Amino acid sequence: MEVMKHRPRLLITLGDVAGIGPEVVVKAWVDLQSICRPIVGGDIGWMKRAIKFTHPALEIVPIERIEDGTPLPQSIPVLQATTQNLADVEPGKLNARAGQAAYDFLCTAIDLTLAGKADGIITLPLNKEGLHAADLKYPGHTEILAERTGVNDFGMMLYAPPGPNVKNSIGVVHVTLHMALRDVFRNITTVAILEKIHLLHKVMRRLSPGPPRLAVAALNPHAGDGRLFGDEETTILMPAVELAKQAGIDVTGPLPSDTLFVQAAQGKFNGVVAMYHDQGHIALKLLTGLSAVNVTLGLPIVRTSVAHGTAYDIAGKGIADPHSLLEAAHVAALLAISR
């Protein structure tokens, strides 16, 4: 892992404590020191539980202000970021208090970062059912971040650095995100696609060397095949691409996604606009696995996340892999430094 010359202060939120978040933080802690100055926003009790079965040599240091935190390889500063009593939350079990606490962790981190106390946020996964059990009707992190920071034009990007299956870094932004497939078609608009092209172009200028080379994925099989399988490519997607080109953006499409992602992996494109969640997620995760990082675009603050879920099935077993957290920290640090 590259050592950052200027290590930004990054707040790490634990997400749903019944998942693998606390364990992953402890496992990644020593390596995080070379990337950033990490501070944990979460629950002190759960962090103490995590070090007992993961890394007993580490020490948890409770702090009341983020400015008081001094991260060291042997000690983890933790800001108590919820008033929820999480003592009886069980690993791998849905719990409304854990859902509320995950929301509290995130909101605390957002507010502190907006206030300039931190340079960015890295989030561990929350559980959407846990949020709903706490009567918090959000689809996930992204929508909470957008609401609390007051933005309307935002997007979720999966980003992956170069690797064995990817020649250059790739960013994939999604026009629609957490919604049923039946709702995707009515939310695909020329304006929405154009917004995502601009967001992707802006962020890839900061994350990838050279001018961004973008492509827009088709919605229908074979890009509609001359309107045989739908006309959205001609009536909705193509106008967005043309408008982006007029604005000086190097963008191609719409292209069938099965060939587009092959070309992106070979280095022809370093940014892809996907139409819906699984179109982008499946392709990029197959190519990059745990190297993928979730980045929220359009916010006034830096936010990245691991690209995996709470993993209830392995929570508390000590076998979680911290690689995605380290990648998320690296990307957050790059974005924070380049602001």
Overview of the structural elements:
This protein has 339 residues and is an alpha/beta fold. It has 2 domains: 1-151 and 299-339, Isopropylmalate Dehydrogenase (3-Layer(aba) Sandwich); 153-298, Isopropylmalate Dehydrogenase (3-Layer(aba) Sandwich). The chain is built from 11 helices and 12 strands. It has helices at 21-32, 44-54, 96-114, 128-133, 141-149, 181-187, 190-207, 232-246, 257-265, 277-288, 323-337, and strands at residues 9-13, 37-42, 59-63, 75-80, 120-123, 155-160, 170-174, 214-217, 251-255, 271-274, 293-297, 303-306. The protein has a 12-stranded mixed β-sheet with strand order 3-4-2-1-5-12-11-6-7-10-8-9, sandwiched between helices. Strand 8, helix 8 and strand 9 (251-255) form a beta-alpha-beta unit. Helix 1 (21-32) crosses helix 11, helix 3 (96-114) crosses helix 5 (141-149) and helix 7 (190-207) packs across helix 8. The longest helix is centred in the first third of the chain and has 19 residues, at 96-114. The protein is globular. It starts with 8 loop residues before the first strand and ends with a helix. The mean pLDDT is 93.
CATH topology of the largest domain: Isopropylmalate Dehydrogenase
Strand order of the largest sheet: 3-4-2-1-5-12-11-6-7-10-8-9
CATH-assigned homologous superfamily of the largest domain: Isopropylmalate Dehydrogenase
Uncertain spans = none
Tell me the number of structural domains: 2
Question: How many strand units?
Answer: 12
Largest sheet, if any?
12 strands, mixed
Give the overall pLDDT as a whole number.
Answer: 93
Identify the CATH architecture of the largest domain: 3-Layer(aba) Sandwich
Query: Helix- and strand-based class?
Result: alpha/beta
